[in-house]
Amino acid sequence: MTMHPSSAAIAQYAAGGRGLDEAAVWSVEIHLEECADCRARLAGRAAGDTLALLDRVAAGLDREIAAGPAPVRRARRWSGPRRRWLVVALAPWATMTVAVLLCASVLNRLLPGLPSLVLLLAPVAPLPAVAAAWSRRLDPAGELISSTPVAGLTMLLRRTLGVLAVIVPVLALIGAGTGTSLALMLLPCLAFTAGTLAVGALVGVPRAAAGLGALWALAVVAPTLITEDLPVVLRPGSAAVWALATAVLAGAVVRRAADFRRLTSHS
Amino acid sequence: MVVLPDVGRSLDALDEAELVRRTAAGDRRAFDELYRRTSPWLAVRLRRRCADDDVVADVMQETYLAVWRAAGSFAGAATSGSAVGWLWTIAANRLVDAFRRRARQPQVSAVPPAETVVPAAEDEVLAGRIGQDLERALLALPPEMREVLRAMALDGLSARETAVLLGVPENTVRSRARRARIALREALS
Amino acid sequence: MRMVRAADTAPTAYPWIVQADGLRVKAGTHLAVDGLDLALGTGVHALLGPNGAGKTTLMRALATVVKPVGGTLTVLGAPVHGRAELRRVRRALGYLPQHFGFYPRFTVREFVEYVAWLKEMPKPEVPAAVQRAIDRVGLAAKADARMKTLSGGMLRRAGIAQAIVNDPELLLLDEPTVGLDPEQRLDFRELLRDLGVDSCVLVSTHLVEDVVAACTDVVLLNEGRLVHSGTTASLIAEGGSSDAGDSPAERGYSALLRRHRAEAGR
Asked: In this complex, do C140 and A263 lie within 8 Å of one another by their Cβ atoms?
């Protein structure tokens, strides 16, 4: 802290700075911002018109404070980050997904002859919510968000992670309940999510999600339900392949990060 | 929800940052104490930037109202760095807004910086001045450069805001700031 | 003493805040902006034109929401027409879309804070900036009310608050006076004039009178092309007593449109 100004300097500053040169005024101002004692000294030497001004402002403050609402306590310091990670608009989608998975698991218990429905649905489970996370039509503030610097891969990833944070534990629990390999339950799910993002960089995430979902339904789910036999891609040995696929697709997503900066003219 | 401190407890022992925190909790007494302690300093400083007392009064009222109304979300920001410095930032922003509102009317003017008064021998005893060399260099600058430097280095305004405050084009502000910096650096080397 | 950032002493490197040359932008499959040349500096500029003229598409291109398909577009000195680095530009932008979407359960303050975070404002500055934006639009009394409880005019004001929270150099307002009553529109014009002091404001509107009252110049679009660009006085000068309209500005507007359609028809 700079040294305290003399009483004369304080008095001259309080009177408007007459008699002090510019450098001295700067010194005083720099010091006053740091020193409560000297501010009190200044208050003691305040000129009459300054005091009148202060009374006027105080009266105005009393009026305005009495007329207006009381300050609202924002005790929840985590409400900011919470809003960013778990976007409220996604809640219905996540809930629907969880409900479908639970129904599938119940169905599996009732009809043990069927191949694991949950295992079949797991890969595409997060896709509706992920599509909603980055669909301008589904997010009310989507148009606004696309004009902000945060719009882009980071935001999409944040929301996707929020979705996965809800769905992955549910899948893990169900998997633990039925005794299916956890890797087989979760890895396809992650691979499909990464795939949706990677393809989404080219055609838009909602379209990619719809396309991949349809592809999975036609190529794997339908034949499995007909033949009642576990498909090749979900046999226990394929976990390693899924892991590799996840890694490759995640890399592709990162490489195309720039494409997410802006929705192209066809989405 | 107003949280009242123990009524008889003196507020004198608390620093400004703690007063802001209590204001954030809805403590009107802490707010009044904050006003009592900081408003003289703020008024004097603002009056050196704006010649119109009505504008100064408006700016001060808006500043303290902002502290009161947004107190709930301020608490975090106020505790990093000095509470008084943060209070000045709010006031400086409101001053710029006030000048924007009156940009079309030429009456409201910034106060020109003090003339270079050669201090009398006794006044040389003034302690705590910014370094002698810097001070001499500063006084050697033309007044319009000092104005820009005061707005940007002392008050923390951006070039754009300084342009509004001083009523000059933004590029003029930038070139004056550049030349002032060069001049100061030369004088200090 | 506070640090003076080097960026603040460098001279501004660009002559215009918005500069477009032969700009072409699609809205879906339709070419909504077709070969537009534009140069905008500080001040309040009105964007006029009939429905379908391409005003909203132009706004969206300036807000970097859609990518142009042809021509060049430079915003705040940075090109936005190619694979551009948009973050720096977007930090200094403010945008209020025509259909202002919001989260109903957020309070005004929370929503403006959220947008401040979206615009990557430094965290310590956010609460003060939010309060400042709310005060500037006159919503201080309703700052902690949920957005679903606000009337149309207040909602628009909240929209403007989120657009100005980062004190943008380029402010884009698409039909901001829709739903405002006459008194609110007067307040809004005051605010526009203040905003135009040191930033570039582009206001798209149908209401010619809003234009004359608050704007320094006018850009008139029709069918994606520039019809007229100049001061409001020059707009008024184009109109004669035989043209349709209840005011000089409206007559100028209809005269220019009539002439443009006649030329296009040729």
From this structure: no
Tell me, letter by letter, the H, E, C secondary structure of B59-93: HHHHHHHHHHHCHHHHHHHHHCCCHHHHHHHHHHH
User: Residue ranges of the alpha helices (H) in C63-206?
Assistant: 87-91, 108-118, 126-137, 152-164, 182-195
**B70 or B165, which is more confident?**
B165
Burial class (CB in 10 A: 0-12, 13-18, 19+), C6: exposed
Which residues are bridge partners to C95 per DSSP? C172
CB neighbour burial string for A137-152, b if at least 16 within 10 angstroms, e if fewer: ebbbbbbbbbbbbbbb
pLDDT digits (tens, 9 = 90+) for C161-220: 999 999 999 999 999 988 788 888 888 888 899 999 999 999 998 878 877 788 889 999
Phi, psi for C103 (deg, rounded to 5): -100, 115
Pair A134, A205: CB distance under 8 Å: yes
Express each pLDDT in B69-99 by its tens digit.
876 666 555 455 678 888 999 999 999 999 9
Closest residue by Cα to residue A25 from A33, A36, A37, A17 = A17
Q: With a CB-CB cutoff of 8 Å, which residues 25-44 of chain A face chain B? A: 25-27, 29-34, 36, 39-40, 42-43
Tokens of B68: 């009161």
Using a CB-CB cut-off of 8 Å, the residues of chain A touching C118 are 144-145, 148-151
Give Cα C85 to chain centroid, integer Å: 21
Of C138, C144, C111, C116, residue with least CA distance to C128: C116
Q: Tokens 């976990």 appear where?
A: A239
Nearest residue, CB atoms, B74 vs list C5, C127, C143: C127
| Separation CA A191–CA A220 (nearest Å) | 15
Nearest CA of chain C to the CA of B86: how many Å? 9
Residue with tokens 């006159």: C138
Q: What is the distance between the alpha carbons of residues C149 and C146, in angstroms, rounded to a whole number? A: 6
Helix ranges (DSSP H) in B8-154? 16-24, 28-47, 53-69, 71-79, 83-101, 132-140, 143-149
Q: Distance between CA atoms of B176 and B159, rounded to whole angstroms? A: 10
CA B32 to centroid of chain Cα atoms? 20
pTM, two decimals, is 0.85
B158 reaches C (C-beta below 8 A): yes
Contact status, residue A166 vs residue A98, Cβ threshold 8 Å? yes
Q: Name the nearest CA neighbour of C33 among C9, C56, C5, C64.
A: C56
Given a contact cutoff of 8 angstroms between Cβ atoms, the answer to whether B100 and B164 are in contact is yes
CA–CA distance, A3 with A31 (Å, rounded to integer): 8
Residue whose C-alpha is closest to residue C214's, from C235, C188, C234, C236: C188
Q: Are A125 and A171 in contact (CB under 8 A)?
A: yes
Q: For chain A, what is the radius of gyration of the CA atoms? A: 31
Q: Which two tokens stand for residue C86?
A: 């948009």
**Mind spelling out the 3-state secondary structure of chain A?**
CCCCCCHHHHHHHHCCCCCCCHHHHHHHHHHHCCCHHHHHHHHHCCCHHHHHHHHHHHHHHHHHHHHCCCCCCCCCCCHHHHHHHCCHHHHHHHHHHHHHHHHHHHHHHHCCCCCCHHHHHHHHCCHHHHHHHCCCCCCCCHHHHCCCCCCCHHHHHHHHHHHHHHHHHHHHHHHHHHCCCHHHHHHHHHHHHHHHHHHHHHHCHHHHHHHHHHHHHHHHHHHHHHHCCCCHHHCHHHHHHHHHHHHHHHHHHHHCHHHHHCCCCCC
Q: How much is the ipTM here?
A: 0.87
Task: Tell me the per-residue pLDDT of A180-233, one tens digit each, with 9 for 90 and over.
Answer: 777 777 888 888 888 888 888 777 778 888 888 898 888 887 877 777 777 777
Confidence of residue A76 (pLDDT cuts 50, 70, 90): low
Q: State the Cα angle at A81 between A78 and A82, rounded to 5°.
A: 75
Q: Which two tokens stand for residue C14?
A: 């660009």
Identify residue A180 by its one-letter amino acid code: T
Asked if the Cβ–Cβ distance from B81 to C124 is below 8 Å, we say: yes
- Cβ distance C28 to C57 under 8 Å? no
